[in-house]
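hey so i finally got around to running the thing on that chain from the lab meeting. sorry it took forever, my laptop kept dying and i had to restart like 3 times. anyway pasting the input first so we r on the same page abt which one it is
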Amino acid sequence: MRRYSYLAISIITIIFFSGPDTQAQPNGWEALFFRANEAFKGGHYQDAIDGYEQLIQNGYENGHIYYNLGNGYFRLNQLGKAILNYERARILIPRDADLNFNLRLARDQIQDAIAEPQGFIQMAFFWLDALSLQEVFWGFGIFNVLFWGLLFIRLFQHSEWSYYLSFVFLVLFLISGTSFGLKWYQVRTESRAVILENEVNILSGPDIQDTVLFKLHEGSIVHQERSEDGWVLIHLPDKKRGWVEAESVEPIKRGPAVLPVGVQN
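ok and heres what got predicted. didnt touch it at all, straight out
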C-alpha cells in the first residue's frame, strides 16, 4: 500500500511541477505571434517583421509565418526579402491562394524577366509543384498500405474485382513512390536564391576588380553553385554564370521547422 502511495505522490508532483513549463512555451510563441499580427494590422511593419523573425529563429516556423513575414517586407517595399519569404512559404503551403496571388504580384515588379524552363519531368509530374513534401509522402504511404493490403486480401479471396483493383493500386503505388522520390530530391537539392540588393554586378570572378558580366536587380531568382571567401557563384536558367557578393543574395532553402505552428493572420 505504501508503494502505491509513493507512486501517487510522484505522479502528482510531476504534474504539478511540469504543468506550468509545458504551458509556458505555447503561451510564449502565441503572445509573440499575436503582438506581431497586431503590429502588422496597426501599420508597424518593422515591429511585425521583428516578431515573425524571432519566431522563426526560435524554431517556430511554418508556411503561414513566412507568408506574413513576406507581407511585412512587401509593405516596406523590400521586394527581395518579400519574394524570398513568399518562396519559403510556398514550399510549405504551395496551394495557398493568398500566397500565390501576392507572390505573382511581387514577381510582376521584378526588373529582370527570368523564366524558369519546364523540363520533361516537371511536365510529366505536374502535380508536384502544388504539393508539399509532407503531402506527397502521405499520399505514397496511403497507396502503399492500400496496395499491400489488397495483396494480403487476395491471399484468402481470389475475386475478379480484387485482381483488377490490385493493378490499379500498383500503378498508383508506383506513381506516388516516384513522385515522393522526385519531390524529396527537389527539396534536397534546392539551389535557388534571391537577389536582395537593388542592383548588383555579376562578375567574372570572386573579386571586386573582376569584369562585370551583367547586372541583376532585387527579387531576381538565381541558382547557387558554390561559395568562396564571401562570394557566391550563381547561374541563370539561360546558362549565364558569374560571381556575386554573398551578402547580396540569400538562399531560399532553410533547415526544417523544429516546432511547426499552424497559424496565420
